[in-house]
Design a protein that fits this description.
This protein is mainly alpha-helical. It has one domain. The chain is 77% helix and 1% strand. It has 15 helices and 2 strands. The longest helix has 44 residues. It is globular and about 65 Å long.
Amino acid sequence: MAPSNSQEPCSVAQLLKYFLRLGTVGFGGPIALAGRMDRDLVEKRGWLSKQDYIEGLAFSQLSPGPLAAQLAMYIGWVRAGRIGAALVAVAFIAPSFLMAVVVAAAYLRFERMPWIQDIFYGVGAAVIAIIAQSAYRLSRKTIGKDLFLWLLFAGVAITTVWTGSEIVWLFILCGVLSVIVKKPPAFVTRPSSRALLIGFGSLSTGLQGAASGGLIWTLTLFFLKAGAFVFGSGLAIVPFLYGGVVSQYHWLTERQFVDAIAVAMITPGPVVITAAFIGYLVAGLVGGAAAAAAVFAPPFLIVIVAAPYYRRFAGNPQVRAFVQGVTAAAVGAIAGAVVILAKRSLVDWVTVLIALLALVALLKLKKIPEPVLILAAGIVGLLVHRSVS
């Protein structure tokens, strides 16, 4: 059992019930899901200490793989060790996987889903509001009034907007700078050392017919690489997936790829579950299962292997300063992602209005469930999009 300084008792069954529910109704992408974990597990239930959450967020942002899923696995590890991490991973991912497979099966059968774009027209605007509110809450809680951390936040936010992606070495750099400024090790303060700073039949049938064993193997390796080398949120993995799925392997057309991302955004749970949708379109149920397992395997292994060592040194002043810097960078990247996603989702005055109304509802009507906002925005999209376009 991994050590935890949580204040309230929590059984494994309770934790699994929570993550099963979050995976079923948790909308808004990785940042919104991370914000909900903070609100639900730290503030409301007290099952997780604030320090555990901050360390888990920094660990998840610094490690490759989907942010929300890895944070969930880390929390499961904190509460119940490796078994907890494994059970939480299944509970959190399974609902969205099943939904993605069902939608992919319908897509494969009917080929077109025009209502997806109509729904996403409204849902995308509401999602922007949810992510923005989560970024605001996280910045207040993790950065506070620390001017230096705000500078790191601003630098990474601007870089994220400028480049359109999250750059992992910036997180490491921010962590190192935070150590140097806040808790410099003894060797750094010495004058002499300062210079050193420098095949299954119908189960594997996709858009292009039955998939061969070689195709399924290639699909698995591709998504294994996606889970192992792409850092941060769904925003970071989208261009990586596009380069392989559309440009390199030509598994999907651009329209089909956009539909896959839309499905991931309008279904609850981690956005990276789009791997299951894409895998299903390429190689049926076998491909969907293989892609989903491959993309989530690296972050799970990183949690159960690296988390114990990370926790062992988390109390060290230099490690704490490093975590503060990485966390500030992570929240800055979140803020930058809000700007990037807003430019893609807020395409006219209607979507801007939907986003503003959703944001006001989140800030003023704090008890309103996020799925209700998503549902309302989707209905508005269905009713308005055709008439506007």
